[in-house]
Write a structure and sequence with these properties.
With 387 residues, the chain is of the alpha/beta class. The chain has 13 helices and twelve strands. The chain binds nicotinamide-adenine-dinucleotide. Nicotinamide-adenine-dinucleotide binds next to α4.
């Protein structure tokens, strides 16, 4: 079976893919610069919330799955998959060099026979730039593919096995080899050209971000007029099939949706007004929630506010780009005394303590632990779980 190395293999996307590939018989090496994560995974511990990962890890570790921070392993692989972060900078422009630097770092260890797969969510045109770098280095056309990851964080193991895999490549040979690998895990392969595949992933995440922005904009518009948003929302959707997937308001946070909308905006020379507006709406929701509480309490000065749920989404332990921290900052700016609480995070208040000590509550994210609470103090809950 093929030897596959995943660069960034201890991350939220690399690890589930590595586990699934190992479970299909590939010899997988997770290569990562995060020594702490490498140590944990080698001891059978998954460093973050990922359904079904621990069982798979216990089965595969040191059989089909190996974990290391030693870059030299790249030399002996048939396939090298890159899945490192693709952030935007403080001006919301993609930091393309972060991806290029990672590939360049491992270039001296790679050879022209290897299939190289890019799997990060990249700025359109990045595959072509990397193709040129590889071509210059190998002095021949590289076997390069771009196969975007589309999993829902935390449910990656299940989704990798159930979602069709988009495969694009710079040559038919690379596309064929990449398709052969993903056919072992995904139910279906969909072929695109690299630029199309790059755009498909950005357009998917941006579409989700816009959906949330619509819901959030309507929520703020209606609640600001003193009306009950959810009364209208539920009436509008009831037995009306076309509104089945109309999504609820909520904090649209996390490491992907915002930055991918901004990547798409940069691609369209910052003329993507809909995306920019969605960013303003979604990023404005924390301020709106704090002002809703302020209306209820009069002033927030010296008031104790329990902030329930600090991660970026429900039932997950990831705090990357969580908007709950923006709510916390806004509350502190109003001189409130914030009591952050989250069952997934150490160093936050216990739920009972936060609720007993506070004057009011804001629901940050609707973890299951909060769904059946009876709150007997003023609260703000844009998710409508305490209706
Ligand atoms: N998180 C998601 O749900 C999700 C879903 C689909 C796509 N993506 C995309 O996948 C990519 C990775 O996201 P993620 O959430 O897994 O990020 P992550 O930060 O969880 O993982 C990236 C990993 O790369 C490692 N790394 C960084 N530089 C390295 C280097 N030079 N050599 C080896 N390892 C290195 C880091 O230590 C980290 O473990 C991003 O482009 C993201 O947009 C993420």
């Amino acid at each position: 079976m093929k030897k596959i190395c995943i660069v960034g293999g201890c991350g939220h996307v690399g690890l589930p893919l590595g586990l699934v590939l190992a479970s299909r018989g590939f010899e997988v090496t997770l290569l990562d610069i995060n020594k702490n994560a490498v140590g944990l995974i080698n001891r059978g511990i998954i460093p973050f919330q990922e359904e079904g990962a621990e069982e798979l890890l216990k089965k595969e570790i040191n059989k089909n799955l190996f974990v290391t921070d030693d870059a030299d392993v790249v030399r002996i692989q048939d396939v090298v998959i890159f899945i490192t972060g693709t952030p935007v900078d403080e001006h919301h422009n993609p930091k393309i060099h972060e991806v290029l630097n990672v590939v360049e770092k491992y270039l001296p260890l790679m050879n022209k026979e290897q299939l190289i797969i890019l799997r990060s969510t990249i700025y359109p045109g990045t595959t072509e730039i990397i193709e040129q770098k590889l071509q210059k280095h190998f002095n021949t056309r590289p076997k390069l593919a771009f196969c975007p990851e589309r999993i829902l964080q935390g449910k990656g193991i299940e989704e990798i096995k159930n979602l069709p895999q988009i495969v694009s490549a710079v040559s038919d040979e690379a596309a064929k080899e990449a398709s052969e690998i993903f056919s072992e895990v995904a139910p279906k392969i969909i072929r695109l050209e690299p630029i199309e595949a790059e755009l498909s992933k950005l357009m998917l995440n941006t579409w989700r971000y816009l959906e949330f922005a619509i819901a959030n904009q309507f929520y703020m518009m209606v609640e600001d007029k003193g009306l009950d948003f959810y009364k209208i929302f539920e009436a509008m959707k009831e037995d009306y099939p076309r509104a089945k997937n109309y999504c609820k308001p909520g904090l649209a946070a996390g490491p992907c949706l915002f930055k991918d909308t901004m990547q798409l905006s940069a691609f369209y020379r910052n003329q993507f007004f809909l995306g920019q507006s969605a960013m303003l709406v979604n990023e404005g929701l924390p301020n709106f929630l704090v002002s809703q509480l302020e209306k209820k309490l009069g002033s927030l000065k010296n008031r104790k506010v329990a902030l329930l749920g600090m991660t970026f989404k429900a039932n997950n332990d990831d705090i990357r780009e969580s908007l709950s921290f923006k709510i916390k900052k806004e509350l502190e700016f109003k001189l409130a005394d914030v009591l952050p609480s989250d069952p997934y995070l150490k160093d936050t208040y216990k739920l009972e303590d936060a609720l007993s000590k506070c004057d009011a509550v804001i629901l940050g994210v609707p973890h299951n632990e909060y769904l059946n609470l009876k709150i007997d103090k003023p609260y703000v809950d844009c998710w409508n779980v305490w209706k």
